Amino acid sequence: MQEALKFAKPSDEQIKELKAKHGELYEISNDDYFLLFKKPERDNLSRFSV
Above 90 in pLDDT, residue 21? Predict the structure, then answer.
């Protein structure tokens, strides 16, 4: 079985820089994972709808 990749949570400074560059970002995290993402635009979502 392949081991999952783990990344360290970015610093508050790095998160601030990412938000300045990309606008509003959303965060989901727990003890093992940290996700930071931008809400997809409608046309991007339509590519994945069936």
Answer: yes
